[in-house]
Design brief:
Aspartate Aminotransferase, domain 2, Aspartate Aminotransferase, domain 1, alpha/beta, 13 strands, single chain, 332 residues
Length: 332
Amino acid sequence: MLLCEQPRIVHGGRLRQAAHDSRIPLQHWLDLSTGLAPVGWPVPQIPAEVWRRLPEEDDGLGMASLAYFGKVPVLPVAGSQAAIQALPQLLRPCRVGILSPCYAEHLRAWQMAGHDACEVYGKVDENTPDSYDILVLSNPNNPTGTVIAPAMLREWHHRLAARDGLLVVDEAFMDATPQASILAEAEQPGLVVLRSLGKFFGLAGLRCGFVAAETSLLQRLDNLLGPWAVSHPARWVTQRVLADRPWQQQQREWLLGAAQRLADLLDTTGLASPSGCALFRWVPTPQARTLADRLAQHGILVRSFAEGLRFGLPHQEADWERLRASLHEVLA
């Protein structure tokens, strides 16, 4: 029996649509809607032969990923979105809780696979997973940027695994703060951790991510996704970006500094930002849609949610000044 089709979810980064709707030319926009690093890893020229060959598993990506992720086996996938959509299809229908607000594709994927999935709002504690067979969350949270401590996640994993449950942690925004990650423990049964190259590395167009889990689950996911899930050029770039430790350290320092600067800017203009991560800041406000529309009139695209606004990081000094001036006008 076919499952009911659901409408496609609208995400950030729809800059062309915003330009069309506002009649502001594309080149005049400042896009802060995606939460992606405004400066990405400098991709070198890809050799011509890389484009002519199919992907091969012994190309060196396995060793590079082991080194980067701390010797934990991971499965490369076509962006973490591929795993978000495929993982629910591997498991029998059960009760799934999605800690919300959260990246909306999680709820959609579990529901479309026939699971009894619902959003979970409110305060979390050690008892949070007790009503569910599977608990799904983003850490840092998307869109609020709040971080659940690893000790709490370990307790949730222990409770779920004790009754053959599963904890799924989407760490798409974790690379700038790896000390808060639990990926190193993902070989244990009952735990799945997702990573993305799009955010910290600024390589969203590469469409490459990773899944860390026990070997048997990775094998089942690999079989479902089929051969050549990640293109040869994407594997070639990923191998090199994971090995570039000096650039990664420089990127972490810049992102953390820029995120603090953005928090200070928002606070001084009257938009309190109580939370965020290295790639964006969160402003809770009931006027989110109105403020987003007013900023759009200034050619600044931010992401609005029912609960608030998410601001990505500006890059050039002119971008920072433009955001500051626009916020003062919008809030005047």
